[in-house]
Specification:
The complex is a heterodimer of chains A (about 325) and B (about 250). Chain A has nine helices and 17 strands. Chain A is an alpha/beta fold and about 325 residues long. Chain B has a single domain, classed as HUPs (Rossmann fold), CATH 3.40.50. Chain B starts with a strand and ends with a helix. The chains are: A alpha/beta (about 325), B alpha/beta (about 250). Strand 17 of chain A pairs parallel with strand 15 of chain B, so a sheet runs across the interface. The structure holds flavin-adenine dinucleotide. Flavin-adenine dinucleotide binds next to helix 6, helix 7 and helix 9 of chain A.
Chain lengths: ~325, ~250
């Protein structure tokens, strides 16, 4: 019995969501009265994990795992689950973790629930709360006995420090043969991704054309935010698809979401609703977004945004 | 080449979300159902591959009879054949197991599922199928080329894309980008007429027991009223975000 957390790293660094997953795993282990272990692939930093309460850190250092592969990683995880006799596996909600979770539940024949918010309401029966209908509702979902896999929704639990002088152990999984190989990874450098961002600045058709995004990027820069857009904006090619947020685009669960020139259609709101604080800037006081937002400015984006940037810079 | 496209029957995006039977069940009363948007990108890609890869396209849904409307639509879009596995689709695991069982009897070279459905958003079914069948798997798939038995795929990752190569059989999780929104096929009259002649097979379910069940649904609490700030008082907005909401 025990909780196992998959701790995602990139270039020898952990993501915030990995610390959040570990914090969640620690809280769950406490509730269940069991221990929590963290599994790390090719990352030398074990000290920072002690801060978030891991009893044991299991490291796999092997060039075979240099690049993420859902097949190799899920088979390795399955082996660790067996050797640790884990009963619950915790993952974050990053693109890779959700990819891995589904694959892992297939090979281990276990129950899996994603988009989980909060510690299980009860352990026996095991009931977790998750979002569904693209954030329009929550479900209390029961998971049957046996191995259980949980993906924690980003920013839903937070990072909670609780020091533990973890033991560190290395693990060597069996080699998994796979004819699947990564050829190339293309990454934009320097920009913050929507999934990792605390603040997201998003703009819609109200911006009139792609040439007007300079002020959106400048506002995002000032705030250290990621940029996003509404669906028609990406459909028209004003912005890349990767910025499309909403029910059919990326979900956003940032601390702050600023919507500029976005009307607030139900499909848009569905995807961004789990953001904690929402600000809308729109010239139309009747725009539906005002019903979903915490703060609003009725005004012309072309006047409000440059002034807002100015004022934010003045304060720094 | 044999392609299977798994289709989820989901409430239209503008549907009112309500629950019945003591909040234990989704209220489908008056709800319009559509092809899950992520699945539709995959279906369009499969229809294109009929020409480029001489593919045969089967669409499959696990669900009750009401799901046949969207299967007919898939046939009108260009699929060759439809299969419905007859049971209530309540849990991703049992749905994936039903699909796995079907794939044990017919070998598909490529299985396409939407990256996630817009009702339960689990994103589980494609990975489960891949895991159960031990096929290669690429989700968030934004490009796919298959030549002979080799597939080259692009996957959207945090902040970029990853290109990978593998052998078929392969399961992908499709999404926008695999084809564009403007590429989606709107069935024409001829397609709709032809769809009536195409086979729609109903298979008995294996009735696999679920691993998860929704005990109770509830809706988010009503929001408090928006706080409006005048456009010439932006300092106030910054103060509120800094001191009240504490987010900047
Ligand atoms: C199946 C389906 C799925 C969908 N999925 C998504 C999705 O995932 N994400 C998504 O975003 N949409 C989605 N949509 C589309 C959605 O219904 C809306 O059409 C879309 O969100 C509108 O985008 P918008 O707010 O940018 O544009 P509009 O609705 O055109 O709104 C523009 C807004 O800008 C304001 N404005 C204009 N000029 C200014 C100015 N100078 N200053 C300030 N404000 C100004 C206007 O008052 C207006 O409110 C989906 C639709 C369907 C049918």
């Amino acid at each position: 019995m025990g909780v196992l957390v998959y701790i995602e790293s990139e270039e020898n660094k952990y993501k915030k969501t990995a610390y959040e997953a570990l914090s969640y795993g620690k809280a769950l282990a406490d509730k269940m009265g069991v221990k929590v272990s963290g599994l790390v692939f090719n990352c030398s930093d074990t000290d920072s994990l002690k801060k978030y309460g891991a009893d044991k850190i299991i490291t796999i250092d092997n060039s075979d795992f240099e690049k993420f592969s859902s097949k190799k990683y899920s088979h390795a995880l399955a082996e660790v689950i067996k050797s640790e006799n884990s009963s619950v596996v915790i993952l974050s909600s990053s693109a890779d973790s959700k990819f891995l979770g589904a694959h892992l539940s297939g090979i281990t024949d276990s129950s899996y629930v994603s988009n989980v918010v909060g510690i299980p309401e009860s352990i026996s029966p095991f009931v977790v709360k998750r979002t569904c209908f693209t954030n329009k509702a929550f479900s209390s979902t029961e998971m049957i006995d046996g191995l259980r896999i949980i993906s924690v929704s980003s920013n839903s639990f937070g990072m909670i420090e609780s020091f533990n002088d973890s033991t560190v152990e290395s693990f060597s999984p069996e080699k998994v043969n796979s004819n699947q190989r990564t050829i190339k990874i293309e990454k934009e450098t320097g920009s913050i991704t929507i999934a990792d961002a605390d603040i997201v600045v998003s703009a819609g058709r109200g911006l009139k054309g792609p040439e007007n995004w300079e002020m959106i990027e400048s506002l995002a820069d000032t705030l250290g935010a990621a940029t996003a857009c509404s669906k028609p904006v990406s459909d028209m090619g004003w912005r890349p698809h990767s910025e499309h947020v909403g029910q059919t685009g990326k979900p956003v669960s940032s601390n702050l979401y600023i919507a500029i020139g976005i009307s607030g259609a139900i499909q848009h709101l569905a995807g961004i609703n789990s953001s904690k604080v929402k600000v809308v800037i729109n010239s139309d006081p009747e725009a539906p977004f005002f019903k979903a937002a915490d703060y609003g400015v009725v005004g012309d984006a072309f006047e409000v945004i440059p002034e807002l940037i100015e004022k934010l810079k003045d304060r720094k | 080449m044999n392609i299977l496209v798994c289709i989820s029957n989901v409430p239209d995006t503008t549907s009112k979300i309500n629950f019945i039977e003591n909040d234990s069940k989704f209220d489908s009363n008056g709800v319009q159902y559509i092809i899950n948007p992520n699945d539709e990108f995959g279906l369009t890609k499969a229809v294109w591959m009929k020409e480029s890869n001489a593919a045969n396209v089967t669409v499959l849904t696990v669900g009750d009879q009401s799901a046949e409307t969207i299967l007919r639509k898939c046939l009108a879009i260009g699929a060759d054949k439809a299969v419905r596995i007859d049971c209530d689709a309540n849990d991703a695991y049992s749905v994936a197991k039903e699909i796995e069982a079907h794939c044990q009897s017919i070998n598909y070279d490529l299985i396409i599922c939407g990256r996630e459905s817009i009702d339960y958003n689990g994103g589980l079914v494609p990975g489960l199928i891949a895991g159960l069948l031990n096929y290669n798997f690429v989700t968030n798939c934004v490009s796919l080329e298959i030549t002979d038995s080799k597939a080259t795929c692009a996957r959207e990752i945090s902040g970029g894309t990853e290109i990978s190569e593998c052998e078929i059989p392969l399961v992908i999780g499709s999404q926008k980008g695999l084809v564009e929104e403007s590429d989606l096929i709107i069935p024409n009259m001829r397609g709709i007429m032809m769809a009536r002649q195409k086979p729609l097979e109903v298979l008995e379910a294996k009735n696999i027991s679920a691993k998860t069940s929704d005990k109770k649904f509830h809706k988010p609490e009503a929001k408090s009223e928006v706080k409006l700030v005048k456009p010439d008082e932006l300092d106030k907005l910054i103060d509120l975000l800094e001191n009240e909401a504490k987010v900047i």
